[in-house]
Amino acid sequence: MTVSSHPRQKPRQLSPAHDWWRQASVYQIYPRSFHDSNGDGLGDLPGITAKVPYLRKLGIDAVWLSPFYPSALADGGYDVDDYRNVDPRLGTLADFDEMTAALHEAGIKLIVDIVPNHSSDRHEWFREALASPAGSPARDRYIFRDGLGPDGSEPPSDWQSIFGGSAWERITEPDGTPGQWYLHLFAKEQPDFNWDNQEVREDFLTTLRFWADRGVDGFRVDVAHGLTKHLPETLPAEIEMPGMASEHGQHLFWDRDEVHDIYAQWRQVFNEYDPPRMAVAEAWVHPSRRARYASPEGLGQAFNFDLLTADFDAADFRSSITRNLAEADATGASSTWVFSNHDVVRHPTRYGLSAAPVPEAAAETETGTPMAGGAHDGKAWLLAGAPEHELDRDLGLARAKAATLLMLALPGSAYLYQGEELGLHEVTDIPDGQRQDPAFFRNPGVDIGRDGCRVPLPWDADHTAFGFSETGAHLPQPQWFSKVAAELQERNPRSTLNLYRKALWLRQILQGPEELQWIEEDDPQVLHFARPQGWHSVTNFGDKPVPLPAGLVLLSSGVLPQDGTLRPATTVWMTR
Ligand code: BGC
């Protein structure tokens, strides 16, 4: 056994009040599917407030709340009508304040989602743009272009939107004639803002202050690598553009260097507060370019999706961890880790399907533009091409629990997604007629979209809608939810819920400096590391039992046999 270290280059002076986010466990709530308090079938803010005791008992440090703003739900709330209000179906600003106070009272911070790349087409600015002439200041807040061809009936370029289909939509001018086109990198209901426009910049500063003044502790920045665009007079064809995740910042709209001027300004706003507000970037960029998003002069932290996109494989995990710790060290940020979110197939299902062949159509999409929203990276196509019988649910869940326990032992922030503490699998059998995700509608037969991870949570097996609501759920819940409801798991000491609780509480106690030491084991399928407090995590990624290293076991993701071995797809935490 040999030891290789990853100590921090320079130990930092940390302040618990300012640096709470550096090693936080953050629980993502997708509000419309969390808990419904008023029986309309849609989760709401008072529903979250009612579940604060559950969140407190779970042992998380913060909640990341996905968009709760007024929205037509063309993209699950990421099409925002009004950035400084609450969707009336989800509650009021007073409900928001009550929820924030209840979370804070329970010692839980609140991070809200900010969606700056695009608004919804119902935003008052976009409606004003439609009612105003070409070239007007109202149009300048978005990206309008004349069409090609003699009558302008062809889109300004052949660019495809992330959800499939053209990235341009033609409007009807106020006088009723067919008119200009606007850019929407996502759904057509999500027109892209023009970030060269000062009013757009100012308005987002107002929005950040609006929520920071209401007491939010941080922001998750949606599509942080979008925003600034450089569109020349003659637009190149899609095929002529450099790769989206290019190393050079040469793309016309993704990951341009100028985007960091915006975040430098945002940082000044965050630092007006005491403690400064934190932010985390959702930036699907080349790993070499992630650091700037995470720098202290910028947003301060950025998601890395490396573990999320990796297979359950010791070598892949180790190289991602090593790379990301080194990256965090270089920027002064802390690492982020995540396996599941509202954009990807839940990780127990991914791991249970990992032997399935890649369907041809999906393989082609995969090598094209990586999905900024993540559905492709999250392997939704696996499900489109893999019938249910290819899913090994037990193996998937065992691997997922092992991976999660490993993640919770790492230095840095761990981002968890609602329902993963119940070990939920993806819901794979939503009838087409009940699906909601634009990714499904715009990629027929290739991508089943992201609804399967957004199905309302099962709280109580014996109640209507499994305790989610007194009436029903906005996406159909499967029968197997009755076996995994939270209330059942509460009573079972060996449930996934109780594993998460124990792990999250232990993590709070055991976290020390952001350092990790690899302990080399003979078997390459075993990943073993130690944290400074004498806390060890050992994972068996292989398919045969391996000898359990000596020490006192604190927690195990699966059954530990008496014969001193560690079973396949199991992680243990130990002290030595
Ligand atoms: C969000 C997605 C959303 C997209 C467009 C993503 O990064 O996570 O859910 O569809 O942005 O806003």
UniProtKB/TrEMBL annotation:
Keyword field contains Glycoprotein: yes
Chain ranges passing through the membrane: none
Entry-linked InterPro entries: GH, GH13_cat_dom, O16G_dom_2
Keywords assigned: Glycoprotein
Molecular function, one GO term: alpha-amylase activity
DNA damage is among the record's keywords: no
Chain ranges of the Glycosyl hydrolase family 13 catalytic domain: 28-454
BP-aspect Gene Ontology terms: oligosaccharide catabolic process
CDD domains: AmyAc_OligoGlu_TS
SUPFAM superfamilies in UniProt: (Trans)glycosidases
Stated family: Belongs to the glycosyl hydrolase 13 family.
Protein name: Alpha-amylase
Provenance organism: Arthrobacter nitrophenolicus
